[in-house]
Amino acid sequence: MHYRSIAPGALATASLLLAVPAFAATYTPGAQGIGDPYYPAYGNGGYDVSHYDLRLKYQPATDELEGTATLRARTTQDLSQFDLDFLLNVSEVRVNGVEAAFTNSGEHELVITPKTGLAKGTDITVVVRYSGIPSSKKAYGFTTWLRTADGAVAANEPESAWWWFPSNDHPLDKATYDVSVRVPEGTQAISNGRLRSTRSAGGWSTYCWRSDKPQATYLATLAVGRFDITTGKSESGIPVINAYSKNLGDRDAAARASVERTGEIADWLSGYFGPYPYDALGGYVPDVPTGFALETQTRPFYSPRQFASGPNPSVVVHELAHQWYGDDVSVKGWKDIWISEGFARYAQWLWSEHEGQGTTQELADKVYASHPADDAFWTVAPGNPGPDNQFDIAVYDRGALAIQALRNEIGDDAFFTVLKGWPQKHAYGNASLADFQRYAEKVSGKDLGPLFDTWLLEPAKPAGPAAARMSSLPAEPKSWKQIEATNEMHKH
Ligand SMILES: [Zn+2]
User: What is the mean pLDDT of residues 269-298?
Assistant: First the structure.
């Protein structure tokens, strides 16, 4: 079954000798991309990771990161070679305990050649030792590693992992994580999931975090800095850990007045989306100059700028809604971004209605009326926006408008059944826009093809009877400006 099973003694007969070349030819390199047309080189082929064990040491003063990553994976073809996506300097790679050859290729490929071929369907253990200064590394001319006055942050979409751990970097390959980080004493390290332990010795502190439900690579996060960490529990019993940079200045109070509502908001969302899918909750606000927020699993990242003009629970609603829509049920390919962003934006509309600041229909009317038919807004199809428009405002606003159109078409009973049933149907997995349409059709018993085409796929403003429910000149809902203020959400 393996190269290594062909011991010299086994080659004694002519028939076996003849069989060798054909046998060897079945072992081929894994693809350098997982097959996403938006990002052909992202992710890799030939294996599926089940667990990442990351042991890291980070020095804020110099931005030096040292690490050992141990990946547990299963091969999906007879592999002679495979890639990980990674930018730092690798000193050693071992596959199943045996030293392997490695080299760099393309923008972010670490190409690994094990001493012997790896048969399809076998579990493998890959150990990568590495070090480097993440801020000095670029791919495609950019870095998403964010340095702060007292540390650094890895949080971005879709590219974030390359700067801190080797991975199969695509949402299709989810895995569990243990992340242990050594930082100078007095500094904290934040990541996803539960904080299993902290200990200090010899001037260094170690933080051990665990995510024991499948997590996409872009949803794994790391923040090192001087944080004030708060702990609590939601009313439903989920432990909450939040972290605030000690350098937030006049944004500190508004950040806390928003993010400390995490447990309350997650419980409220579970009324619409079903049980919260994880055993940990929280959020963190590092001292970064960026403006966006990100749904990093169990513990969203918030830029301080989201709280520059006061408390902003709407952004917390958005990022927590992603824990069901985007994190629990992730995209199959990046073209499916609507199944993530459309619903996170719609959750903000539901919150507006809950707060008495404008109903979802009023917000839909406002979006519809705000963009005349010749506005470029309508040329972006949220159902397949293209990589350049993946985070265009149309994916959010037209995306949520489409969800209101769906609600009007199938009625509240079927609509809320879909909203709550979907995360259960694809729990901890991946799904596409087509999967969502099929599911909504099954629940409602209606053919929704024309509705999905009109609202999500046509590069034009829906008109005529399709838009009859969107009134023409609505008053501006009270929540409108606050929701608009979160539009910077995912910009690079
Ligand atoms: Zn979002």
Answer: 98
